[in-house]
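Quick illustration, no need to memorize.
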Amino acid sequence: MWIIEKRKHGNEIWVGTNKEAILVGEGYEKKEYKRSMELANVIVKALNKHECDEITKKASAKSKKN
């Protein structure tokens, strides 16, 4: 599952899992922070949906074999 992480006292916005992370942006200024969080939310939703869809496809393929 992908989540939003804040690093360096909340000034760096990351999207990550327990295996990998992507730097989305910096939030040293309010405008930067707001935009980075908006992007991070979109990225998290998209990546989680993609992974869920992949799991569903694999489960569906397995059930068709049986």
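Residues 15 and 43 are 8 Å apart (CA to CA).
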